[in-house]
Amino acid sequence: MQPTQTLKIAIVDDSMFMRRMVRSAVKECFPAAELLEYGDGQAAIEQLPAESPDLILLDLLMPRLNGQDTLAQLRALGVKSPIIVVTADVQQSVRDRVRELGAQGFIQKPITYEKLKTVLGEVMSS
User: Fold this and answer.
1) CA distance linking residue 40 with residue 60, whole number of Å
2) Is the dihedral of CA 125, 83, 46, 10 positive or negative?
3) CA atoms within 13 A on the CB side of 78
4) Is-contact 67 45, C-beta < 8 A?
5) Please, which pLDDT band fits residue 42 given cuts at 50, 70 and 90?
6) Are the C-beta atoms of 97 and 6 separated by less than 8 Å?
7) Confidence grade of residue 5 (pLDDT, cut at 50, 70, 90)
8) Which residues carry this modification: 4-aspartylphosphate (predicted)?
């Protein structure tokens, strides 16, 4: 994916503050990106399949439907978009589980431009 290409990127996080931080980092990487934001996993699974985003940035710890269940349901619904998990949980078992569920990347919070750029480069080139 070329940096000049307009991307549609979904941010799924229950924290408005974290969505704002992620939005800021994404805009540094892709100033022209179209951003979609969802405050919980349930809203994401109800709307994302129709949106066909180029990338999904997904928090794990959310009410209603956590990130692991959201990830599993998005994949079950046929969503093929690359999914990068953005979380404060650093346990290797969690990383392994979300990769098994179909996540292509993992960013530890707090998110920064440098972390996002590195993981996006890895995901978009694979």
Assistant:
1) 10
2) negative
3) 4
4) no
5) very high
6) no
7) low
8) 59
Considering only CA atoms, which of 86, 16, 81 is closest in space to residue 45?
A: 81
Asked if 3 contacts 30 with a C-beta cutoff of 8 angstroms, the reply is yes
- Tokens (6 digits) for 118: 């590195």
Residue type at 93 in one-letter notation? S
What the chain holds in terms of domains, given with CATH numbers, is 8-125 (3.40.50.2300)
State what percent of residues in the chain have pLDDT above 70. Answer: 95
Q: Which residue type does 12 have?
A: V
Question: Which alpha helices (DSSP H) does 1-126 contain, by range?
Answer: 16-29, 41-51, 67-76, 92-101, 113-125
Instruction: Give pLDDT tens digits for 86-126.
Output: 988 778 898 899 999 999 999 988 888 888 888 887 877 76
